[in-house]
Amino acid sequence: MRQSKYKIDKRVILYLLLLAAALLFPMAANRRVLNIAIITLMYVTLGESWNLLSGMSGLFSIAHALFFGLGVYGMTITTNRLGMGLFAGVVMGLVVNTLMALLVGVIASKLSGLYFTMALIGLHQTVYSLSIQLIDLTGGSMGISMPREYLFSKTQQYYMVLTLAVASMLFYVFIRRSRIGTNFVALKENPDLARALGSNIGNWRILATVFSALMASLAGSFYALYLMSNNTEVFNASISLKIIMVVIVGGMGYVWGPVLGSSMIVLDELVRGMMPSRFAPFSVVIYAGVLIIMALLKPAGIISFFQRDEKKTPAKKERATT
Amino acid sequence: MGVSAYINIILNGICVGGMYGLMSSAFTFQVGSLRMVNFTYGACIMLSMYLTFFFIRMVNAPVILAALGVIVINFAIGWLMRKTLLKRIDEGMNILTTMGLQLVIMNLVLFFFTSYPRDLAVFEKRIYFTPKISVGIIQLACFVMAGVILVSFQLFLNKTWTGRAIRAVVQNRDVAGLMGINSERTLDLAFSLSFILIGVAGMMLMTMFTVEPNFGDYITLIGFVICITAGLNNLTGAFITGVLVGVLSALISGVLGTAYHDPMLFGLFVVVLLVRPYGLFNKRKNAVRNI
Amino acid sequence: MSKAKRILAVLLSACLATGLFYGCGDEGATQPDAANPPAAGGSAEDGELPPLKIGMVTQLTGPNAFGGHEYQYGAEMALEHVGGEINGRKIEMVFADGPTQDATLSEFERLYNDGVRVFISGYGCIADRTFATMADDMQALYLSLAWDADLLQGPSTYFFRGGANVDDFSRGAMMQAIDIGKTFLGKDAKDLKVALLYTTRLQHVANPMLETAEANGVQVVINEGYPDTNKDFMPIITKLQNTDYDILIPIQGTPDGTLFLKKIHELNYRPKVILAGGIFYDTPNFSDLGNEITNGILTQSYTNPSISEDAAPGITKFKEDFEAEYGHKPLAHALQAYGGMNVYFECLKKVDPKDWDDTAKLAAAMKSLDFEEGKLPWYWGIKWDEFNSNTRAGQMVISEWMDGDMYAVYPDFLRTKDPVIPWEQ
């Protein structure tokens, strides 16, 4: 990219302004607004995680809640059942997720496309039914609570998740600009060529899956603090769908994509309260409708509205990876 | 438990497996032969079940008319979907748009029929071989139908001109066009036809099960498992895999206990993916790069 | 050029996002401030007090919408029966839809932001674990009807758990099975064989039953948990057919229970005694199966609308009005919400309506409630232990289905009809 020093400075100033606004945000917001902001930022983190796996590396994960849910369960089980602290809970989530991602990654390294998606669904179903059945460990369908001393105020939660979101964005940018990211993109764009040029497809795919899972795991650990309990719902398809939507609506393959797309989450939270209960199913219909329309008409996401002059839109990149 | 108990379990497993085969047949055809990843699949079967219920119990239509209605509506849905959502063959976007549509269907059903579970309250007659060994008539019919439909679809694809045309179009659209095949129309027709299978499966399931808006999730799951385990583009294989899954399910439930069913079945599925990623019934070389 | 445009884009969307936040911030600002609920002073003194809002976040959509609506109707009915006001101040119910835990939590925050400070559980009580940790910090009065007692982690000022306990529920069912064995089958606990069948989603109900069975020497010859998605009951039924047992205890949800019962009917197989412990067995879905299937099935539940008027004053009026208004017989869930609301009304009666906005006073009044069993329409009494868990909600009811209707058969003082065990066609 050709950039003059001056322009870089301008962007840095803009980012700093945004960051400052985000940092000062809790002072101007009430509890509900903060609550929405927390959820939104969490989905930004999850969105970046999905973006890394699917947007950058082209592995389509429609069961991303698997990694997220394991993060939640790692946290709750460690603090409640094992009686260890928060840090141990986060580490537990990361360790379990690394193992799971390795398994998924190994499958992804052999195959791709649909097969990867299916393997993820199979593992997801296995973990989900185990989370219900291993009642002594997981609390089953009733769930278990986090110890009450770990209750943070909404403001504290906001800063925690803001840190997570910013860190995940920086991580995404870092990976994208590094050699690793170049390999990821090469695998997505043309796996045959990448293989021919001596790139070890399998290992890069495993690495992408692990990175993505770790990011989702951190978001999960945070969500355990937000919910103060676990619940088998964290494995729900609706969470996977929201993650995907955030990225697709925003713009796949761009670091700002999930940030722009997370406006959908804000919209969802606002709409839900306004719908009369009889018509509540329609909020999901609208939600899914937006996804369909975006995917069909603007596969490049909101971000593409602002960059008409750039010839290369991600729409062309989004050819199915095989 | 005696020997007869196990025979009964296995026999019923085979029948249920046939039903699984029928359930996943349309999916196998759509993904395997047409390369259209249709995630609305379970939701469409669920919708067909509700439509059956609606025609028979709420409108009190005769069974024949009800069946015709369900089939026509399904054909129309298939046509519309192909014309809008699945216009481009792009796996990633197909997954997304059909996932979205699945939610739309589910929630519209929820709105019109509420989440109260619906049941036709038909009781299945059973054929008794011995006092302890018996199979249900509807299940048996499902088994036979699934076998006939899947095998004849496979024959249709392999032997008839239209079938070959469909395969040619899927493999290379441009060349097929040069050969004088109207590729768009062929695909439209094939996809819409596969929705008739969905309608039939939905009607059969409605006679056996209670339907609720999220009923389709499980069907989609079983459909995936069978379709991928068999290997894409292999309908006969899908039928055999369906039966295998049915028997395996029944044996896991009967011998180990039903609690082991889901973890073992889906765990095995992942093992199959690791060991034979191209499917149980496919040759290695033509499967992996298929999609 | 492109950079400038991109910056513009980011700025625009930032403005949009801020606008959205402020939009709903303003909406919130017109409502009473989060920290200071409206004090009923000043000009409002001689005028009308604003109605007290009681919030319920329940599952109005999603797979459990039916139960969620039962809760809603039960609460509405309770408010109607009290005339919409207590001591001259109006009361208003505010319902919100919470099909999942995170939606419930978000809606809770929304209602809280709109000035609602008094809450009651919705159906399934799916986010009560979270509220149990938060209620004290938020100074919001919360009456939970959740049955998992372990969500209480210590003393609380604002969080009350008014409903039954899952352990009492399961132990009661197993003790009753032993009792039935003794009275009707002539078998001692040591000789009694039971078959336990449950969906793993309800494993927490099955586990205390197994413990109770073990403690009393009852043999559990079949202990089968199946996943919620199970569609094929043949292996399980074949097992049942080939095992010798006295009482079948199914703990099932709606779709699986229907399938199971239809299947055993098709197979013409009828266990001697079915003592169900679970939600499905007192729903209309169950009674829709027809008398041939349902007759004689016993079901253990919370206090339900079939109990006797003598022990639960007001239950007949509730039952009749409910059916007249909503077109179907109320379920145990509706009675739960109805009873829970009545607990709130008792609490409100003790506090001057001017002080209703002070949740600390309401919480103190709540804590001081002391009702013996049989004084409230849900039969249960109220007496809080040190963790604010209701100690007088342990009584369960066994009902029997006879020709399409449910009659309480156990315990004696709630009985509306004598049990027929085993059922003869």
From TrEMBL, chain B:
Q: Which domain of life is it from?
A: Bacteria
Keywords noted in UniProt:
Amino-acid transport, Cell membrane, Membrane, Transmembrane, Transmembrane helix, Transport
Q: How does it sit in the membrane?
A: Multi-pass membrane protein
Q: Which InterPro entries match?
A: ABC_transp_permease (IPR001851), BCAA_transport_permease (IPR052157)
Bilayer-crossing residues are: 6-29, 36-56, 62-81, 93-113, 133-157, 189-209, 215-232, 239-258, 264-281
Q: Where in the cell is it found?
A: Cell membrane
Instruction: Read off the PANTHER family from this record.
Output: AMINO ACID ABC TRANSPORTER PERMEASE PROTEIN, BRANCHED-CHAIN AMINO ACID TRANSPORT SYSTEM PERMEASE PROTEIN LIVH
Family under the similarity heading: Belongs to the binding-protein-dependent transport system permease family. LivHM subfamily.
Q: What is this protein called?
A: Branched-chain amino acid ABC transporter permease
Q: Which organism is this entry from?
A: Anaerotruncus massiliensis
Give the taxonomic lineage as stored in the record.
Bacteria, Bacillati, Bacillota, Clostridia, Eubacteriales
